[in-house]
Amino acid sequence: MLGKSLIDPMDLSVEEIYEILDLGQKIIEDPEKYSQSCRGKILATLFYEPSTRTRLSFEAAMLRLGGSIIGFSQAASSSAAKGESVADTIKTIECYADIAAMRHPKEGAPKVAAMNSAIPVINAGDGGHQHPTQTLTDLLTIKSLKYRLTNLKIGVCGDLKFGRTVHSLIKAMSRYEGVEFYLISPDELKIPNYIKEEILEKNNIKYKEVKKIDEVIEELDILYMTRVQRERFFNEDDYVRLKDRYILTNEKLQNAKEDMIIMHPLPRVNEIHVSVDDNKRAKYFNQVKYGMYARMALILKLLGRDE
Ligand code: CP
């Protein structure tokens, strides 16, 4: 993986993903062992869109590996505000840093950066398209808490149209045996056809589209909630009409399996009531921490510092 960029979850083979997850688990068991592994290396975080978890977990990951960080957290504080292209920005950043993580509102921007870069570029979320390091986070969470990536019934609920975390998760999970999806959304926020046709149907993955969580809750091993992505709507009225469609409460979880886990990439708006946070099935804040370890493992692999 040394020197590779990560733009799409499929850029990593199943074996490479297992290697990253194994390394993530080793870091969790003995973080001290890796605390100087990236000494002398610099990570640049280039965020053209808001973020709490992805940017800060990348930065925490590099700092916990003994490396250093530079970057910007909004386009307005970079020369993008003066009209600089993504290609010119990355050609500049490669003079300063050894690896870069980029979030951008335009689909494909991190790919353009990677094509123009001498250093590895990691897609930290591009528009409504993909979010591969959220997927590594999700896979490490699932593997750590469910002890497998196979034979899982996964309900994904909410904004399946614009939710890039869902698109990446379905892509990645489609390669594991016995995985079934329940796609829970209103008609207006259904999963894009390309995910159904090119990923689910092409790989003979069983899936069912439903409108209500109650229709499938008893079946699920994982319930993956997502927020309605206000920033991707063209029309505020549509957002207002759809934003409260799913609000998960403890009452709605009464028929769920005891060992079902609830995940959410966060940020949460109101799609999971705060009282659910105390439910033993709620694992979304554990997921946040797994995200840092997954990114530590990824940085080590891409910089060849994993030995
Ligand atoms: N999950 C996620 O991408 O969160 P942020 O937008 O806070 O980075």
Radius of gyration: 19 Å
- Structural class, from secondary structure content? alpha/beta
SS field, number of helical segments: 9
Q: Report helical residue fraction.
A: 25-40%
Sequence of strands across the biggest β-sheet: 7-6-5-8-9
Number of strands: 9
Q: Strand fraction band?
A: 5-15%
Overall 3D form: globular
Largest sheet: 5 strands, parallel
Spans with pLDDT under 50 lasting ≥5 residues?
A: none
Bound molecules: phosphoric acid mono(formamide)ester
Order of helices and strands: HEHEHEHEHEHEHEEHEH
- Average pLDDT level: 95
Distance, first to last CA: 13 Å
What is the secondary structure topology, with strand pairs?
Blueprint: H1 14-29, E1 42-47, H2 53-64, E2 68-72, H3 86-93, E3 99-104, H4 109-115, E4 121-126, H5 132-146, E5 153-157, H6 164-173, E6 180-184, H7 193-201, E7 207-210, E8 222-225, H8 236-242, E9 261-263, H9 284-302
